[in-house]
Amino acid sequence: MIAERNRLARDIHDTLAQGLTGVVVQLEAAEDALTLGLTRETSEHIDHAKELARASLNEARRSVAALRPEVLERRTLREALEAHVRWVTKGTCVRAEFVTRGTPRPLPAAHEEHLLRIDQEAITNALRHVRDSRTIALRLV
Question: Of 16, 27, 28, 98, which sits 20 to 30 A from 83 (CA to CA)?
């Protein structure tokens, strides 16, 4: 398990390093083109930098999906969910409400990972679209 984790970590590092290097190179080329007044070339370099960044992000997501989230190695799913909602709302005007009901039961690791990722996406979307309501409620039943 540790050897596989180290291999994946190297792959992720290499992928991100290559992708970010490409982004930096394209942005520097865009800067040079902008200095020379080459509008079309500037735009092309920026577009390419965005493509590289998106591709790198997708590759990183694919690689990371293969790893068990570290937080689930240190905490129960309930603890991880509660910590996440409190962490992302800390210092904001949004109030986090976390409620559980029933007796916790063990779940397969894959189910816990999916629930954690669903929580992360849902909380991010809620924060992005919060308007009149200033409460985010997470309920496990």
Answer: 16
Q: What CATH architecture does domain 71-140 belong to?
A: 2-Layer Sandwich (3.30)
Contact 138, 96 (CB under 8 A): yes
Contact partners, residue 132, CB within 8 Å, separation at least 6: none
SS3 assignment, position 33: helix
| CB count in 10 Å sphere of residue 57 | 12
pLDDT values of the chain reduced to their tens digit, one per residue, 141 residues: 577 667 777 777 777 888 888 999 999 999 999 999 999 999 999 999 999 999 888 888 877 766 777 788 888 999 999 888 888 888 777 888 888 888 888 899 889 988 988 988 888 888 877 766 688 888 887
**Cβ neighbours of 26 (radius 10 Å):** 20
